[in-house]
Design a protein that fits this description.
With 280 residues, the protein is mainly alpha-helical. The protein is built from nine helices and no strands. It has one domain.
Length: 280
């Protein structure tokens, strides 16, 4: 189930990202074709001479049309193309894979969340009525890392309380490792995306100076275009790092909360087992 959710998340995000890039590229090509067609038409056709004696009055409000402002999505597409596919593409891949892993971890951690108070109440009632075997049935039928730790501890009950505590501590480390699985990749993309952006900026600046050297003149247009294209990769890398950092901090806080629940519930379980032995 977890692998299926991860695959669906990765597929959906990658499909959206590449479709956005394709639409943006098509829009840029269409704009270029339109501009070329208009240029050819203006070159071929000549305006007809106006009569000298007549005066034509034109309503400017009817001719001048206000251009609709670009949407946020269109602006992103334009900036993506201006930044260059060779560097904006890897940054986009970091965002897609990082978000896919983060979403999969969020779903998994939310599914692993357990109402520990309710579980402890059920275990206590089972110990009072059915003993250790009844408590194991309750924990086996409950999902989540807390219930798994309880099951491991109850399985060692016949060897004494000390073995129960050791089993809980050992298996608790295993469960914590499972909860933290995948975070290292999110952390990698948080560091990798800005570095790719900075690398694209440096290479873009080198290309800008090469263009200045080839032109033999420091033209403001050449300098502005080169620097603008170079800095777009840095902005994209920083945005990706910020977005993934927010998800990473949420995941870390979620895992810390689950680990605290595991520790508190484990201590309560040991107290219950001690009380159960004394009552026997």
């Amino acid at each position: 189930m977890k692998k299926l959710l991860a695959i669906l998340a990765i597929t959906g995000i990658m499909t959206f990202g590449f479709s956005t890039f394709t639409v943006a590229q098509d829009a840029a090509d269409a704009d270029t074709t339109t501009v070329d067609a208009q240029a050819d038409t203006s070159t071929v056709s000549e305006p007809a001479p106006e009569p000298a004696a007549s005066t034509i009055t034109v309503d400017e409000s009817a001719v001048v049309e206000e251009e609709a402002p670009e949407s946020f999505q269109q602006i992103i597409k334009t900036k993506f193309i201006e930044g260059g596919v060779e560097w904006m593409g890897p940054v986009l891949v970091c965002l897609i894979i990082g978000l896919a892993i983060a979403i999969e971890r969020i779903i998994t951690l939310n599914m692993a969340t357990t109402n520990t108070k309710k579980l402890l109440a059920k275990v206590e009632d089972a110990l009072a009525t059915g003993g250790v075997e009844g408590a194991k049935e309750v924990t086996k039928n409950t999902r989540g890392p807390v219930a798994s730790i309880f099951t491991q501890g109850l399985m060692r009950m016949s060897e004494g309380i000390e073995m129960v505590e050791k089993s809980i501590i050992s298996y608790g480390s295993v469960e914590m490792g499972r909860l933290e699985r995948g975070l290292v990749w999110v952390s990698l993309f948080i560091a990798l995306a800005p570095m790719l952006g900075f690398t694209g900026t440096v290479i873009g600046m080198i290309s800008a100076f090469d263009a200045i050297e080839a032109a033999g003149d420091i033209s403001p247009q050449i300098v502005a275009n080169g620097i603008k294209t170079a800095l777009l990769t840095t902005v994209a890398g920083l945005f990706v790092g910020i977005i993934l950092q927010v998800f990473y901090n949420y995941l870390v806080s979620k895992i810390d909360g689950l680990v605290n629940q595991m520790e508190d519930a484990s201590i309560t379980l040991v107290d219950m087992l001690v009380k159960h032995n004394l009552s026997k």
